[in-house]
Amino acid sequence: MLFRLENLSHQYSDGTLALDDVSLSFAAGERIALLGTNGSGKTTLLHHLNGILQPTSGKVYFEDKPLKYNSKSLLDLRKRVGFIFQDPNDQLFAPTVKQDVAFGPLNLGQPPDQVKKAVDEALTTVGMAEYAEKPPHFLSLGQKKRVALAGVLAMQPEVLIMDEPTSNLDPRATSEILHLLLRLNKESKITLLLATHDVDMVPLFANKLYILNKGKLVSEGSPAEMFSDAEMIRSVNLRAPRIAHLFEVLKKEDNLPIDKQLPLTIGDARKEILRLLSSQKTSKPEATSKRRNPAA
User: What is the DSSP letter of 240?
Assistant: First the structure.
């Protein structure tokens, strides 16, 4: 396992128990989503994976070694585990885009030519090379999120941790960010972990899903498995993806023979509709034959 959390709890100074005895793990190369309503503990959990917070109790393991919280250990961890905040303005502070992206590699002591190469490659990867000289505060929210991502990618991490990476983005920007993350996972083998409450986005992104509620880990599994349990999803004040909800209604209200595993994406829905149409076609000749021969 790349990361392993054992009985992790975190209580803030005001007495709020944000995480309560959470245990989970995930391997390198996976795409993991933490799903839950606001206040479920998602952000607090993410902050433990990068050493921003220390557990009140329990342990966090990285490559089977417990995290250490001295400066050197945290620097070594953050070279390999990049963190992207929900609000990119929390990460962007330099006068220009390229200076902002260069901050991380320079802070690691990399030589100038190596830093320039890393910055150019990162900006090209996120589609922001033409904005290199632009001040970040003149960018749109979606562009700022791309620059924040470039700043992390310039450090060549093995893991990307993201807090609501598509929040407040329009549909096109959301789609572009998701496609970019999937490409990074496929081509660069970067492990991806994001927190979100966007249930429609999860099936497009994740191959493993953890559901949090009031600081507790409620359930875990593939998105298909989790969203098939409608009662559990509703019990934690979430809903199924719109497509899954439509097929659930068709199954219950219209008695269509929908598979138990509800479609979650347009691609899944297309396959299920074609299956239903195909089964309908094969049953029609039999019905016609019976009408023609009442004795049959």
Answer: -
Q: Of the candidates 240, 271, 239, which has an alpha carbon nearest to the alpha carbon of residue 258?
A: 271
Beta-bridged to residue 64, according to DSSP, are: none
Are the beta carbons of 254 and 247 closer than 8 angstroms? no
Q: What is the pTM of this model?
A: 0.86
Spatial strand order in the sheet of 31-35: 81-84, 159-163, 191-196, 31-35, 208-213, 216-221
| Section 146-163 average pLDDT | 93
Kindly state whether residue 233 falls inside one of the protein's structural domains.
Answer: no
15: left (phi over 0), alpha (psi -120 to 50) or beta: left
Same domain, 216 and 254: no
- Three-class secondary structure of residue 70 per DSSP: coil
Q: Which domain does 13 fall in, by range? A: 3-227
> How many domains is the chain built from?
2
- pLDDT tens-digit series, residues 92-137: 989 999 999 999 888 888 889 999 999 999 999 999 999 999 999 9
Does the residue 245 lie in any domain?
no
- Whether residue 190 sits in one domain with residue 73: yes
Altogether, the residues listed in the chain come to a count of 296
The pLDDT confidence band at residue 284, using thresholds 50, 70 and 90, is low
* Token pair belonging to 237: 């004040």
From the list 217, 222, 219, 218, the residue with the least C-alpha distance to 6 is: 217
Q: What is the pLDDT of residue 124?
A: 93
Task: Tell me which residue has tokens 């070594």.
Answer: 76
Name residue 174's amino acid: T
pLDDT in tens, 20-78: 999 999 999 999 999 999 889 999 999 999 999 999 999 999 999 999 999 999 999 99
| Torsion sign (Cα): 271, 276, 277, 283 | positive
Q: Are 97 and 218 contained in the same domain? A: yes
Find, among 163, 164, 157, 92, the residue nearest to 128 by Cα: 92
